[in-house]
Design the sequence.
């Protein structure tokens, strides 16, 4: 499933927001507490102009006591302390809740990504997924934090201020709020434009992340072909696209917020003219005018906050959609309910029945393959490049999904097995020898919950890593770097073999794990497998006949099917592809 799509409609927006409902409900008490303290701060802010009004009217009357002014100042200080405390508490609860939701949403996204199969990662780039896991989740958090605060705070303050100023001086308030409808129209237009431009900015960031990830993942290839200048140019182009997309958003902000500030200033000017006239006429007092101007100044934040809210919410909706595209991507391989093999009967450990498989709409790579693998058998799989060797062994633990009724483990169709139970039977050393950016010890012990240092040393020794470890300054504690970038191909393969073998699995699969090894090392490891895994099932995939000499049987794949089957000696005695290849490999040494 490739991610991406068109702009959402209102109904789709509501559908996307369902993802957040469980989190908001879980932290509802934090949100309620935060909103309570937010409203407390707003109410306290409404009191300050009233106290200022009383102080000005008291002083301007000329008939007052110093104690009265001190009391009013003390009341202001008390209100300011309430505002300060309330601001801390609403930030603690509201932003704390949004941060917790951010962490849980990121955890959910990561956990879901682990359920998706290889075909998903073939269609979607890692850089884009990283962007969705960082930038997009951050935008959702901002919408749930600052966006929510700005929206509710702005509405509450606007309503309270309008009620107060109309009650205090209705004529001046009427003229002062005339620019507000224009601001509302601008906010609606601003919201739609922000959503479209922010989506383009996020897509540009994903593209930039893809370039960086691919460059550093293939740094050896980049350097060996001296293509640094090409990737520097490619990065510069993507970086320029990202800057351009962001500048489009910035220009919109740059035009919107100053204009809102101008309209807010215009509102203050109108209030000053209309309110001042009423003071001159004796309709209202000087304190009333100062209070009116204070409230009008306080209206600037709701005006700006409305634009801020639309900005944050639009960004959050766009980002939430991008996150949901991943969360709604279903795993292509879903496990069954059985955790054991089929009861009764004399079932082979593994069996392929008229197995055929094709990638997408291509022609079949393998067709009508029939093969039985008994428990404790040592099977070799041989064939030329592209003959389907790796495809076949990936079907057994369902790393690829076979057609129903074609692959059986212990008499039960693999599609009916619980995935965890099925895959716990296997340990696989794959072709690409994927290692993690950790120590050699931790890479070898990857499949173990607990281990002893001696067990790791034994496994390394059996995988012929002894001399290599002696040459490493930190031995088993050597950090291998991302994807094992600091190691040779042979070293990575031997660590992968040790990692698979140390778990002592019921079924061990070595998928072309000797391709980067010399003949002496290959012979040593093959001997270990024969000696240590007697009575346990082992499958070795190889294009070299030497690695398959000790196998109980060798299945030769050629021409899209099972072309030959027998022991190494039997196949060599025939005039088939295996015999010809064995003779050529023996002649080449």
Sequence:
């Amino acid at each position: 499933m490739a991610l991406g799509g068109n702009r959402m409609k209102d109904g789709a927006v509501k559908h996307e927001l369902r993802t957040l409902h469980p989190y908001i409900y879980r932290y509802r008490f934090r949100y309620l507490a935060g909103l309570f303290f937010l409203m407390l701060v707003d109410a306290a802010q409404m009191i300050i102009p009233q106290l200022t009004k009383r102080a000005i009217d008291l002083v301007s009357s000329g008939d007052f006591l110093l104690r009265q002014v001190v009391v009013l100042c003390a009341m202001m200080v008390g209100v300011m302390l309430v505002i300060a405390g309330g601001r801390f508490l609403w930030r603690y609860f509201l932003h704390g809740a949004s941060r917790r939701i951010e962490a849980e949403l990121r955890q959910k996204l990561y956990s879901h990504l682990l359920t998706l199969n290889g075909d998903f990662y073939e269609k979607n780039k890692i850089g884009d997924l990283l962007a969705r896991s960082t930038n997009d989740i951050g935008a959702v958090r901002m919408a749930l934090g600052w966006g929510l605060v700005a929206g509710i705070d702005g509405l509450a303050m606007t309503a309270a201020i309008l009620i107060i100023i109309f009650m205090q001086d209705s004529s001046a308030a009427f003229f002062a709020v005339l620019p507000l409808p224009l601001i509302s129209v601008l906010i609606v237009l601003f919201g739609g434009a922000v959503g479209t431009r922010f989506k383009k900015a996020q897509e540009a960031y994903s593209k930039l992340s893809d370039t960086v990830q691919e460059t550093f993942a293939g740094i050896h290839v980049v350097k060996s072909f001296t293509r640094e200048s090409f990737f520097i140019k490619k990065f510069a182009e993507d970086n320029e696209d990202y800057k351009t997309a962001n500048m489009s958003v910035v220009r919109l902000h740059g035009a919107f917020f100053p204009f809102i500030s101008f309209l807010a200033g215009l509102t203050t000017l109108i209030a000053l003219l209309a309110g001042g006239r009423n003071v001159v006429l004796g309709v209202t007092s000087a304190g009333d005018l100062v209070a009116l101007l204070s409230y009008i100044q306080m209206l600037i934040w709701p005006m700006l906050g409305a634009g801020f809210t639309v900005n944050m919410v639009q960004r959050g909706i766009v980002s939430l959609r991008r996150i949901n595209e991943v969360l709604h991507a279903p795993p292509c391989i879903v496990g069954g309910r059985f955790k054991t093999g089929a009861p009764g009967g004399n079932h082979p450990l593994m069996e392929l029945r008229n197995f055929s498989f094709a990638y997408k709409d291509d022609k079949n790579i393998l067709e009508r393959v029939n093969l039985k693998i008994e428990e404790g058998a040592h099977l070799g799989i041989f064939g030329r490049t592209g003959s389907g060797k790796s495809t076949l062994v990936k079907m057994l633990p369902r790393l690829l999904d076979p057609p129903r009724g074609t692959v059986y483990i212990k008499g039960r169709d693999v599609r009916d097995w619980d995935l965890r139970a099925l895959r716990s039977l296997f340990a696989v050393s794959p072709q690409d020898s994927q290692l993690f950016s950790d120590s050699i010890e931790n890479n070898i012990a990857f499949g173990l919950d607990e281990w002893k240092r001696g067990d790791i040393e034994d496994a390394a020794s059996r995988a012929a890593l002894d001399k290599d470890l002696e040459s490493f300054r930190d031995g088993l504690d050597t950090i291998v770097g991302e994807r094992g970038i600091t190691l040779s191909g042979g070293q990575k393969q031997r660590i992968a073999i040790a990692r698979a073998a140390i778990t002592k699995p019921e079924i061990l699969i070595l998928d072309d794990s000797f391709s980067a090894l010399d003949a002496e090392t290959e012979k040593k490891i093959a001997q270990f497998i024969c000696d240590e895994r007697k009575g346990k099932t082992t499958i070795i995939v190889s294009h070299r006949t030497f690695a398959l000499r000790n196998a109980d049987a060798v299945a030769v794949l050629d021409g899209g099917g099972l072309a030959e089957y027998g022991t190494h000696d039997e196949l060599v005695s025939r005039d088939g592809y295996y015999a010809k290849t064995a003779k050529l490999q023996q002649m080449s040494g």
Remarks:
- Strands lie at 350-357, 366-373, 378-383, 407-409, 412-413, 426-429, 507-511, 537-542, 553-558, 561-566.
- The mean pLDDT is 85.
- Residues 397 and 423 are 5 Å apart (CA to CA).
